[in-house]
Amino acid sequence: MNAPINISRRTFIKATALVAGGLIIGFSIPYAKRFLMPGAAPDAAPDAAKDAPKLPAPNAFLRIGSDNTITVMLAHSEMGQSIWTTLPMLIADELDADWSTIKVEHAASAPAYIHTTYGIQITGGSSTTWSEFDRYRQAGALTRALLVSAAAEKLGVTAESIKTENGFVISGDQKIPYGDLAEVAAKIETPKTVTLKDPKDWKIIGKATKRLDGPEKINGTAVFGQDIHFEGLMTAMVARSPVFGGTVKTFDATAAKQIKGVRQVVQVPTGVAVIADNYWAAKKGREALKVDWDLGVNAKLDSKIMLEEYRKMAATAGLPAAKAGDTKAALANAKQLVEAEYSLPYLAHSPMEPLNCAVKIEKDSCEIWTGTQMQTTDQLAAAKILGLKPEQVSIHTVFLGGGFGRRANPVADFVSEAVQVAKAAGVPVKTVWSREDDVKGGHYRPMYLHKANIALDANGMPTAWQHVAVGQSIMKGTSFEAFMIKDGVDATSVEGAADSPYLKSIPNYDISLHTVQATIPVQWWRSVGHSHTAFVMESLIDEMANLAQKDPLAYRRTLLKDHPRHLATLNLAAEKADWGKPLAKGVFRGIAVHESFGSFVAQIAEVSVTEGEVKVHRIVSAIDCGLAVNPDSLKAQMESSVSYGLGAALQSEITFKDGMVVQSNFHDYQVMRMANMPKVEVYIVQSTEKMGGVGEPGLPPVAPAVTNAIFAATGKRIRTLPIGNQLA
Amino acid sequence: MITLNINGKEQQLDVEDDMPILWALRDVLHLTGTKFGCGMSLCGACTVHLDGQAIRSCITPVSAAAGKKITTIEDMQNQKIGQAVQSAWSEIDVVQCGYCQSGQIMAATALLATNQKPSDADIDAAMTGNICRCGTYPRIRAAIHNAASKLA
Predict the structure, then answer these.
(1) Which of B134, B136, B141 to mutate against chain A (most A CBs within 10 Å)?
(2) pLDDT tens-place string over residues A154-193
């Protein structure tokens, strides 16, 4: 079944290591140049296809040292999702490597590491494992083939008589460690084809494997952006406008400069930067700084008023996102109607590590140390600010103290600002955001309002679905705009609604979108559009089932009868949660199922409500993501998604009053904590279907599973998030 | 000049009295295992031990540590409870992004120093001040029970 895969010379590149006399395997896959950075000249965009024959440096994916260590270079960023382990598993399995000799590094920012599908160097969309599944396995297989050829040459035997195992080439009774063959292998001509293993021969792929970054994250030695330090590096904090879009009129730095340790105060496009010996001095300096702001057009911004405006907009249809039949006529003939309005707030990502970025500028180069999810955008932005070529800007990716989308900023906000500060100050600078800066700093999950009218027939089954969504577009103004916005509709505004499987069984539907032209910076937040659409869709299905007096699981099974992957997760979750069997007194179940990022997740929540207080006891999750490369890290990501999504559903919201963000830190931007965390069980559907992601798909169903359980417990339908004290 | 005892070593620092211990550790001594998360004692990422008690180093000035012993994540591998906790963390494979884990481990070791067999409710009470945005809470809970059984 595993036919040899043709590999062109332009695709795979190997080179002798400059140090240690080892073997380096690089490769460079021509990609469709789909995305261009806004404002970047076309020739500024990296072009792997063009550069490949010139051996773009660096381009290594794998390095075998003469000491037998195998270093895997990650084209993506480790932010907790465990690709530091999963991607090396792909190489190590095909290479028959000794797992204990594997080392891992973040790759440089270079064309060779461009995402196989997205066309820029990016970590996002829950795509790392499926998008690298072939590339990393091929690198392992190619390297193995070269080592076998090297051994055959050395021993004077045929390649076919040689086998490999656990870091050794074995021929008869001779065992040669890979490190001893690396130098010879580097001189051997690259084979035209490689054969990947049959899945039945996998020794590592598909097996629960411990994290390779565990030890250093347990003993405090793991290096995050915040931990970057070198001689001469100063700490900077920037005073930014309290209102988005505001600008500096004047500032007085006299008092700030008197703070011990403050070295400079400079103006930058985003505000005024205080540069100091350390964070504490920079913080005190910034507090002493006096800035007179021109607050601009958003000075009166109020999210309550905005929501009222959204409500008015939802009264009329927006731009069509999905349409079939005659929805109006079908609604007029409805036996029963579900009419509901749902709303969800702005949300901050609030990763544990506040944003930061270290920058060192020299005459013809710039070095940047940061935890980023989108190296290409950052590199191009820095190059543009400094008048350098992109390849003159090096980005050293360090561990990300959480990302959740925030560290893939479409306008390279925190990197651009750090470059501006370093440029203005003329010294190497690390900008550090306080928690307040992070909470108030924008690039939020946008606020959304959805209004739906659904017609049911005499059997309680839907005959028409009219649905208007209102909110800001995430993709507008980004490099993904041309690809993601069609006829005015941002696909991520309606993903999970306009393409819902439920619509397939309904003859008449009309899903439309009003894109709000607000200037609040918005961004992808873990699970992007699905973070609001799944709540709305799965709550509406529950409302329909209730009106139809049908069991919510049975109702979903009927509507999804032609969707086997949805059904498989529903059935597995229901079986594991004992759906239909009695629970402890006062505890009620809710269910939700949703597809996102190519994976299917069903969740059943067990919830009690006592004196208005919601307690989530248990979440049973079932996922079909195709092959589970590392089942334990998959489980960890599902636990993580439940925590992140449930914390937001219960308590988180960003609101605006008088132009300003009301919340500031973890006392008023509440997130999940230990005492509120339910028991989470994760079950994996054994699947040979197409691979999907695992970092995000566990999030969308959790809010509706919980609010559907709240309905079962209390009869109250939660249509606004966060749940907060709505039951009090 | 202030003298601080950090991980058993006396160190002289030329810092302002009001500088929080966190920044003395991180920016002056470059002991970066202790993390900055909120600056307001709300998230626990900066947790260290002061004379064995878990404290939030982001709001505790260096002046409050004079004559006392500061212990950080860097010293946990030298302590019996610290070793048990770190080994449990490894066994359960707790970490994800890892940024909050120093603080989580410092809070867990302080809990186990005074409570050899913490219940789930004890863990909730001791650990709920430590935020993990990756949601490693179920594994932290399991690892604390695991460490307690190792120490029993």
Answers:
(1) B134
(2) 999 999 999 999 999 999 999 999 999 988 888 888 787 8
Inter-chain contact A219–B27, Cβ cutoff 8 Å? no
- Cα angle A154, A160, A161 (rounded to 5 degrees) comes to 70
A and B: number of Cβ contacts within 8 A = 179
> pLDDT tens-digit profile of A683-703?
999 999 999 999 999 999 999
> Residue A359's beta-bridge partner residues?
A368, A429
CA distance A680 to chain B (A): 8
pLDDT at A572 over 60: yes
Domain residue limits, chain B: 2-73, 76-151
Q: Residue B70: beta bridge partners? A: B6, B50
Q: A169: helix, coil or strand?
A: strand
Place of tokens 């409302």: A543
Chain B CB contacts of A280 below 8 Å: 16, 19-20, 23, 27
Domain B76-151 carries which CATH code?
Answer: 1.10.150.120
Long-range contacts of A30-33 (CB under 8 A, 24+ apart): A31/A114, A31/A115, A31/A116, A31/A119, A32/A119, A33/A119
Best of A352, A639, A696 to mutate (most B CBs within 10 Å, chain B)? A352
Q: Which of B137, B139, B141 to mutate to test the interface with A (most CBs of A within 10 A)?
A: B137
Contact residues, chain B, for A639 at CB < 8 Å: 135-136, 138-139
| Angstrom distance (rounded) from CA A296 to CA A292 | 12
**What domains sit in chain A, N to C, each tagged with a CATH number?**
5-218 (3.30.365.10), 225-296+355-432 (3.30.365.10), 303-346+444-714 (3.30.365.10)
Return the closest-CA partner of residue B16 out of A287, A280, A258, A235: A280
Q: Among A62, A238, A239, A36, which Cα is nearest to A143's?
A: A62
pLDDT given for residue A6 in this prediction: 58
The answer to whether A697 touches A691, Cβ cutoff 8 Å, is no
Q: Does B139 touch chain A (CB under 8 A)?
A: yes
Cross-chain residue pair A222–B98, CB shorter than 8 Å: yes
Binary contact (B36, A354; C-beta < 8 A): yes
pLDDT, tens digit, 9 for 90 and up, residues A291-330? 999 999 999 999 999 999 999 999 999 999 999 999 999 9
For residue B23, give the nearest of A278, A632, A680 by CB distance: A278
- Does pLDDT of A17 surpass 80? no
What DSSP character marks residue A200? G
Fold of B2-73: Ubiquitin-like (UB roll) (3.10.20)
What does the pLDDT look like over B22-51, one tens digit per residue? 999 999 999 999 999 999 999 999 999 999
Nearest by CB to A218, which of B90, B130, B132? B90
List B residues 41-70 in contact with A (Cβ-Cβ < 8 A). 42-43, 45
Structure-token pair, residue A664: 């500031």
Amino acid A27: pLDDT: 56
CA–CA distance, A727 with A386 (Å, rounded to integer): 54
